[in-house]
Amino acid sequence: MESKQERINIDKLLITELSNDGTLVRRDILIPHPHTSTLSKLQDMSANPNRSLLEMQDVFKQDVYSQDEHNVCLVHEYNEAYVHPASYPKLMSYSEYNDIVSEHRRNLEHSKDKNGRKLSREQIEERLVTYILSLKREFLAQAERYILAEDYISIYRQTVTLDALKIISEEKIGWSVYEHQPNQDTSFKICTNFGYGRSAYFRVSMCYKGVEILPYSHVVTYAIAKMEDLVRATRNYSALRENWPLAMDFMIETSNMALQNEEEFLKVWLKNEIDEMMSGLRRICSNPESMIARYEENIGKKTPYLAVRNFTEDEVKHYKARKDEMNVSLKSSKMYGALMFLDNLQSIARVFGYVDDALVELKNLALSIIPEITRLVSSLNMELSKLKKELGAEKFKLKSLEKQLIPYAQILERLYIEQGATSYEMKSKIEREFRVENNAFNKLKNDISEQQRSVWKKEAFFSSRESFRDNLVSQKEMILLQVQKIS
How many angstroms separate the CA atoms of 53 and 42, rounded? Predict the structure, then answer.
């Protein structure tokens, strides 16, 4: 966890640059804060009930700013949603300020408390003070964000002109691609999408001699791997500002190793990665429970990566409750994941040549689990057929109960007409009173509610089992398709 003095892009800018010997090095550049005095005054004034918003604005205006809009996430985190550019704060005139405060007072004068009583003068004044304080806090937040963005942009514009610069810790909102080539054989692509919530990402792709390097071992190292994301980049970090050092250090380590010792680079980032993946696949195919025991050691632990995660406690409980079928599912999902790397692995085989044996073994392991997947799918088909019949019977029972409501519905309709009930609220009130007076109707309504819950529960269970079956079928088809490409 970084100390407050080391906040990335607030207190320091991170850069990676090319040294004289051709290697990459990381350097931190302190970010000057020429508006520190102004910001400190604004913070003190915000907490002081005797200082007004207009006075805070006057202090803010005395400093010098570009007044440009800055398309940066600061101070929001990269994975927050609906992040807008940092804009110069809107300044209110004396009349505008008085108008909104007066309007809020008038609204309070017509408001009531939770018991339906008009607010007292003391309550109005108390709530008005709270509102005025919120205006000051809102302005402080806008001013603080703009000042930090202004300071970041200022040092950023000076830094991007450096001849040796390769990478800089970015803040840009939205989709961006940054590419650099530290040497003839190595290139990097950094893809980001900051400020878009769950759609945010932070990816680093490394290409060596025309071959993209991927995180092969991750498919077995972590319990859950989202392969669609895993195959997109060498490193797929969570969209967090704190991951800039990880990303930069990864690029520095791999680039420098590839430049200085190709044999060691190929061993560490290709051979060892692929060997680890194959070792994990062997273990999963021969003794899946031992691999689950490994995963269980890391329950709930966070990773810096977006495409992989560890098991949750509930997932482990589910695994143990359905151990036999989950063993097959683990084999299927991990083999499916490994074969998603196939095109890339075959590129490695063409360029570097030493993964041919791994490909043959991968094919044999994949084919060895097909009979298990087939048997499990067949068993699930029989289970689903039985569940479908049970669900049909439950739905029929529900419809039968609902038919018994018809006479009561006619009675209620007459009551609505007699009492002039036209709104939902009035009709609901009449029905509630009718239920109190009529035990048979009340019991029928309760029975219908209980039966409806039973149907929903069985539908959800059927849907989950059907989805589980469909995933297995899809994985089996993909496995068979991919192994045909391996000669």
Answer: 10
pLDDT at 2: 47
Q: Quick check: is 3 in a domain?
A: no
Instruction: Identify whether residues 178 and 147 lie together within a single domain.
Output: no
Same domain, 191 and 149: no
| Bridging pattern class, strands 308-309 and 224-225 | antiparallel
Position 322 scores a pLDDT of: 93
> Helices 53-61 and 36-47, interaxial angle, to 10°?
180
Q: Reduce the DSSP state of residue 310 to 3 states and report it.
A: coil
Q: How far is 82 from 79, CA to CA, in rounded Å?
A: 10
Q: Which residues of the chain have pLDDT under 50?
A: 1-3
Consecutive H or E run containing 188: strand 186-194
Total domains, the chain = 3
Q: Can you give the pLDDT at residue 452? A: 97
Place of tokens 């800089």: 168
pLDDT of residue 61: 95
Closest among 62, 84, 63 to 142, alpha carbons compared:
84
Residue 484 main-chain phi, psi, to 5 deg: -65, -20
Alpha-helix runs per DSSP H in 322-355: 323-339, 342-351
In this prediction, residue 4 carries a pLDDT of 58
Residues 194 and 322 in one domain: yes
Sequence-distant (6+) residues with CB within 8 A of 209 are 185, 351
Could you list the residue range(s) of the whole structural domain that residue 120 is in?
Answer: 33-158
Instruction: Tell me whether residue 135 is in a domain.
Output: yes
Which contacts (CB < 8 Å, 24+ apart) does range 39-44 have? Answer: 39/143, 39/144, 39/147, 42/140, 42/143, 42/144, 43/140
Does residue 325 contact residue 376 with C-beta atoms inside 8 Å? yes
- At 12, give phi and psi (nearest 5°): -150, 150
Query: Within 13 Å and on the Cβ side, how many CA atoms surround 429?
Result: 8
- Are 253 and 122 within one domain? no
Instruction: Tell whether 150 is covered by a domain.
Output: yes
- Asked if 90 and 163 count as a contact pair (C-beta separation under 8 A), the reply is no
Does residue 65 sit within a domain?
yes
- Choose the final residue of a domain: 158, 193, 227: 158
Alpha carbon of 454 to those of 59, 260, 384, 457, 459: distances in Å?
A: 65, 66, 17, 5, 9
